[in-house]
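Record 1 of the preview.
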Amino acid sequence: MTSPDHDDVERFVRGTLGCGCPDDAFRTVSVSHLPRTPGRPAVLQLLVGSRLLVHVASAPQDAQTADWIEQLAASGRAARDRHGYNRFRLVVVGTFPATGSGDLEARFARAVARDERAHLHLLGAHQLPDALAPGPG
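->
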């Protein structure tokens, strides 16, 4: 895995996630891996300026339940609030059924209490730049 650069992050956040952050938000971009936690997939954290917090995680292959998405949603929202960021976006990378992923979306919505400043993005691996891969779920 290569290390992501500023352009990788900006293209992903603006192009793939559709974020309308102003140019000045992209003056500072940081990328880090969050410490592993039992029962939670690996998380790559992107911070765009002091405005946008993005967590990127791979959907667990062997997940029997979707409790992990609630943990990710709640911890991301709490970090956003604790640090005073404007928005939190959780990006889950995986293969999702053609019939939809309503269960994951519903669990996320419940975990963030329908917070309009928290968003879920379900993406296929081909939509994520290699440099932004979170690691194995």
